[in-house]
Design a protein that fits this description.
The protein is of the alpha/beta class and 496 residues long. The protein has helices spanning 39-51, 78-81, 94-99, 117-130, 145-150, 159-179, 247-256, 267-283, 305-317, 321-332, 353-363, 374-381, 394-408, 422-437, 452-456, 484-495, and strands spanning 9-15, 56-60, 105-111, 135-140, 217-218, 223-224, 239-242, 259-263, 292-301, 388-392, 412-416. It is globular, with a radius of gyration of 24 Å. The mean pLDDT is 93.
Length: 496
């Protein structure tokens, strides 16, 4: 009997805006991006993706406009192209999508820089309850100056300082989710025959007063007394996504994340980041295989390679190049309008090293002879952003995805769209049957109707954080007078 093949993770990567990584595509006749305000649009997409057994819908989000290009503080290229503007908060649609589905998960982006941990913990607990444990938090520290200005700051908080804040933020939320209500705090309903429950709740109380506690967190950045406003939800801590690629971001991800989203142009370029994250996780005492790593890709698939190329070219013809350069300005912080139209950024002495490096990576996967000026950069970014693009028939695409799995050692893919829902429908009807034929994508969820954590990690019964996760130190287990971490802290204080 042959060795069973690694089962891939597939997410749909989306944004509740007219366009995500496809500025201008709202003009494409089959695109339904304009329906982003319609809850039935999202319900229909969730049902379609669940029928195909996607693991999750991963919702990106931003808190400001892309205003660096032709800036400063200029949204003129952004607004006409609908370059991630306007944009709605995705969290509020999750309960409706969850009510119409049973197993698919929902990843929601939220920032540790501009939101209070006490309030965020409550919102995610609420949605974890309403989705029966199918919500994930994509942890970001935010990267747009426009967001900082709208949250009463003159500019962004320094990059590594944002991650230091985020680290404490996570520990506050762990204490709220895991250490404020004991596992057995809420009494079950009393037996109708006896008028009491097996735990001795003779007074018909809803919860045990001694099993709900304040966390009394006092740190450098946050003071949060608690207690948590919500009773324990199915996952307690939502499943944790993270997408940092800087040195500080990778360390943060290796510490806290259960799944990590990486962008890269080739699997060879992604592999060092994957290895670095897994090594750092092991050094921190975590099982490196507990962390699932997914690569961001745009897949355009059709019945033949030629048809797929034509489809890509047709889709790209609707793209807005100014909007693409606006997105680049927000992601990189560099305004390409300051350079001449003919400047080849592979060799530019005026361009910052980060821009030269990025452009050279793109050039390495593209036909020779191109001049990598602003026009070429815009053409590259207009579909799928700065991630890799895989175009071809089901065999061609599946071959390339298998190469990514093997070379980059990723666990699956965050699949973006050029046109919603058409791109996902093509993947469902053409690519997924080929993946199943190769034995790399499941026929059904590991736990139909289960939590996101159970299905993402393929661990039936594993609703909670792993025991070696830093959040697990705050577990308040049934019968304990207080969480073990609080007992240790009190003992240490007495020792001093």
């Amino acid at each position: 009997m042959g060795e069973s093949k690694k089962q891939w993770i597939l997410n749909a990567f989306a944004m509740q805006a007219p366009g995500h990584l496809n500025p201008g595509l709202f003009k494409y006749p089959k695109d339904q991006g304009r329906k982003y305000k319609d809850i039935h649009h999202w319900i229909a997409l969730a049902k379609e993706l669940e029928q195909a057994k996607f693991h999750a819908i991963f919702f990106a989000d931003v808190l400001g406009g892309y205003d660096v290009y032709k800036g400063p503080a200029n949204l003129e290229p952004t607004i006409p192209s609908a370059a991630q503007f306007p944009i709605n908060d995705p969290l509020y649609t999750i309960p409706a999508m969850a009510a119409a589905t049973n197993s698919i998960g929902f990843g929601v982006t939220a920032s540790t820089t501009y939101d209070a941990p006490y309030a965020l913990a409550r919102r995610f607990s609420t949605v974890d309850h309403l989705s029966n444990g199918r919500v994930a938090w994509n942890i970001v520290t935010s990267y747009l100056d426009s967001a900082a200005r709208n949250f009463a700051l003159k500019t962004q908080i320094e990059h590594d300082e944002r991650y230091r804040i985020a680290h404490e933020y996570l520990h506050v939320t762990y204490k709220l989710w895991e250490g404020s209500w004991r596992d057995d705090a809420v009494f079950p309903p009393p037996s109708p025959a006896e008028g009491e429950d097996p735990q001795g709740n003779n007074n018909n109380a809803y919860a045990d007063l001694k099993a709900v506690r304040q966390i009394n967190h006092q740190g450098k950045y946050f003071t949060v007394p608690g207690p948590h406003l919500c009773e324990p939800s199915p996952q307690r801590t939502p499943f944790l996504f993270q997408a940092g690629t800087s040195t500080a971001g990778r360390k943060f991800a290796a510490t806290h994340a259960e799944a990590i989203f990486l962008n890269g142009h080739t699997p060879e370029l992604v592999r060092p980041s994957v290895d670095g994250i897994r090594e750092e996780a092991s050094r921190l005492g975590r099982d490196s295989q507990d962390i699932k790593i997914v690569a961001g890709l745009l897949v355009v698939v059709a019945e033949s390679d030629e048809a797929a190329r034509k489809k890509y070219e047709e889709l790209a013809s609707y793209g807005d190049r100014e909007g693409a350069l606006a997105l680049f300005g927000g992601w990189s912080g560099f305004d390409l309008s300051k350079y001449s139209d003919d400047e080849d950024f592979r060799f530019s002495k005026e361009a910052p090293p980060a821009v030269r490096s990025m452009v050279n990576h793109w050039a390495s996967t593209s036909p020779d002879g191109l001049t990598w000026n602003k026009k070429t950069i815009a053409e590259w970014l207009v579909l799928g952003g700065n991630g890799a693009k895989v175009v071809g028939d089901p065999t061609t695409v599946a071959d390339e995805l298998e190469r990514w799995i093997e070379v980059a050692d990723v666990d699956g893919f965050n699949l973006s769209y050029a046109s919603i829902p058409e791109t996902f429908r093509d993947i469902i009807t053409l690519l997924i049957p080929e993946l199943r034929r190769r034995g790399v994508f499941w026929e059904d969820y590991v736990v139909p109707g289960g939590t996101l954590r159970e299905n993402y990690l393929a661990r039936p019964g594993g609703n909670r954080l792993a025991d070696n996760h830093p959040g697990a130190q705050y577990f308040w287990k049934a019968g304990e007078p207080e969480p073990a971490y609080a007992t240790r802290a009190a003992s240490e204080r007495e020792g001093n």
